[in-house]
Specification:
Length: about 300
């Protein structure tokens, strides 16, 4: 039977982490281990985890580390992961997994056409409040298929829903070391990586309760006002500081020599200098990169034309 390892980065998560871990232990798929990295917590998170380890010594392993941030912490988890596992799941500390989450992911990935190439599946969620009262499914299904041309502009893969195969981890492990300071989020990096060289699968069936509270690193919303606030915050985070270009340059540094054809052409075009309006107009006409929303794709092209991106 295939082995699954859950990779959980924890930071000051004493309030909810025990409930999350219990939901992993309650999965219908039995062959699961949990590797946790504490990212320098200052509350009682480590004590809670050590108590759980004593109860489940064969299931849970803990790495204690300094505070390096969520991206570096997940990358360290990947490096420390069991190389013999068949599949790996990203996991956040304050959600709750539905009992079918792992079994359904393995069913989507466990076929001969996906075992030899990097592959990952991600899903929708049920948004909840801090008491796990459901607010509805989130996010909406992608309007277009997941692809590398989307991943350069936008992340649609919610990290806590991602399950990847060993080939995806090996692609990460057997490449040049990535500078996590140039990566927007760990899940975005793997959406880029797997969409470039493998298969990305979206499953519309929610697999977890996505708890929303005041300490969420990244949150979701189904309200119109909440969506607008989230989109505006995303634009401010990812455009004004040239972060999309930094991430794409880092990807090109590590994997550019492996890209071929239109993928390499589009990365080079995205990273090329655009000092004049004519340069920007030329790029806007030739670019095949897109966001899921047509309106947002048009807004991105406008930002490009005015030199904001």
């Amino acid at each position: 039977m295939n082995k699954v390892q859950v990779l959980l980065s924890a930071y000051n998560g004493e309030q909810y982490i025990s409930e999350q871990i219990q939901s992993i232990l309650n999965q219908t798929y039995p062959f699961i281990s949990i590797l946790i990295r504490d990212d320098g917590s200052t509350d009682q998170t480590v004590e809670v985890l050590e108590e759980l380890m004593n109860i489940h010594p064969d299931k849970i392993k803990l790495i204690k580390g300094p505070n390096v941030g969520v991206v570096s912490s997940f990358f360290e988890l990947l490096r420390a992961a069991d190389a013999e596992a068949d599949y790996y799941c990203f996991c956040d500390q304050d959600d709750v997994w539905l009992d079918h989450k792992v079994e359904h992911a393995i069913a989507r990935l466990d076929s001969s056409i996906y075992t030899e190439v990097p592959a990952m599946v991600f899903t929708s969620t049920y948004l909840t409040d801090d008491k796990l009262n459901r607010k509805g499914a989130w996010p909406k299904p992608p309007a277009q298929e997941p692809s590398f041309f989307n991943a350069l502009y936008e992340n649609i893969a919610i990290g806590a829903t991602i399950t990847m195969n060993r080939s995806a981890r090996n692609l990460f492990m057997n490449s040049k070391s990535v500078d996590s300071q140039k990566v927007l989020m760990h899940d975005w990096w793997f959406y880029l990586l797997v969409s470039a060289f493998g298969t990305v699968i979206y499953d519309n069936t929610p697999t977890m309760l996505y708890r929303q509270h005041s300490n969420n690193v990244v949150g979701g919303s189904n309200s119109i006002v909440g969506k607008l606030k989230s989109k505006w915050a995303s634009f401010k985070r990812h455009t004004g500081k040239d972060l999309l270009h930094k991430q794409a340059r880092e990807f090109d540094r590590i994997y550019g020599s492996r890209l071929t054809g239109i993928q390499k052409e589009q990365v080079d075009l995205f990273l090329a200098s655009r000092t004049s309006f004519l340069d920007r107009l030329h790029y806007a006409r030739r670019s095949k990169l897109y966001r899921q929303s047509k309106a947002e794709s048009l807004l991105f092209k406008f930002f490009i034309l005015i030199g904001f991106i």
